[in-house]
Amino acid sequence: MAIRGHGHLLSARYLLLQFTDSANGKAYLAELEPLITTATERKPDVARQLAFTYSGLQFLQLPERTLGSFSREFREGMTEAHRQFILGDFGEHSPDNWDWGNNPSEIHLLLMLFAEGEEDLQQLVDQELTRASAYGVKHQVSLPTAMLHDQKEHFGFRDDISRPIISELVKDKELGTTPTFPAGEFIMGYKNLYDEYAPSPLVEETQQGAEVLSGHPDLPGLVDLGRNGTYLVFRQLKQEVFLFWEYLKSQSSSMEDSIALASKMVGRWPDGSPLVLCPFKNDPSLAQANNFGYWDEDRDGMKCPIGAHIRRTNPRDHLVTETSKKDSTEMVAKHLMLRKGRPYGNPVSKGMVLNEILAAEDDGEDRGLHFICMVTDIRRQFEFVQNNWVNFHKFGGSEEDADPLIGNHYQEGSVVTDRFSIPRYPVRRRLENLPNFVQVRGGGYFFFPGKKALQFISKYHED
């Protein structure tokens, strides 16, 4: 269920729901379960997928031992006090400012709906809200989302290029040197980079309804509730498009310079071509290029700054903390995520024409990105990247730089994170007083179940 992004279904809506009665909630899930789209269905006309919060699984009264077998991060939730510090969710990013997710007990279920067009989507949404209402399932929040023109996000840059390839799913033998990764990094029930089965929630095999689940290969007497499922991290990120380009224009002498400076922050030109392969001008033939590194090509960051967004979120084969290309590559591989995000809100330019975006006046509309990633270890993958690479102000030898795009920029006592350093000869360039171009407006940790797990959850009841 977790490996299809439904890119052919251009319209989508994310519904956040709350159960009001445990028995009715399970009856609702039992009716919905046969309609959930699985990985074997290729290019369906519509798609339905769902994921649970920990409070949702608690409300459905899963066995206590099973609830305790979920990861600590999932059980505590994204808004737990220490986790806010880890994720950089304070100041403007604080849950106090969120539109949803700041009260985890109010969100039990995420229902993701996809269709080819808006009319079909609305019919699907109406159908599912009617179904939910019949079982007393409350509709809390509706999050419209869609695909933007030419795969570009609201700032005007091509997005969704870099994505890990799962070894077990590869059929194309012509990948060459493109790295692949074991399924257990992203899907439970399979082995990960440590040659171990990914951590997974468990059920005692004697539990009522457990016969539908697969046994755990390493743990006799227990069956695997997580198999073919994963943890889903959801973040609603508001993008301040006009603030972003106004700041860049204030630091530049021309529109071309503004675009070049923005590209330094991102690490790619707006069309997607990476700076490390074409540092002086974009190359349309490289717009989808992803098989490159930094250790040999740009270790000093003269082409693509070490603090650039794509280099911080995926340092590939170069980490200044490692002493070799091999060590860097192996370390980075342990922190990758399967990312499937979609934008929301109207684009500033319908055709995502960059000159039109730069020339437009602030329309006050809300727009941004629904960031979704799938991992089997929230702490090792998502939280590590967010804490150690995105927000850490000394990443890569920097001194006061958070991620220039999505980092939390602030000055608090001796800690300064609102700088961006651009290596160049003979003297580096340094931008200061970066505002927050992206602001968190909602989020949560979810369990995205496999089909058999969903069957168990919907049918389980205490003896």
TrEMBL record:
The keyword Metal-binding applies. The keyword Ribosomal protein does not apply. Its EC number is 1.11.1.7. GO terms for molecular function: heme binding; lactoperoxidase activity; metal ion binding. Its cofactor is heme b. GO terms for cellular component: cytosol. PROSITE patterns: DYP_PEROXIDASE. Keywords: Iron, Metal-binding, Oxidoreductase, Peroxidase. InterPro entries: Dimeric_a/b-barrel (IPR011008), Dyp_peroxidase (IPR006314). PANTHER family: BLR4509 PROTEIN (PTHR30521:SF5), DEFERROCHELATASE/PEROXIDASE (PTHR30521). This is Peroxidase.
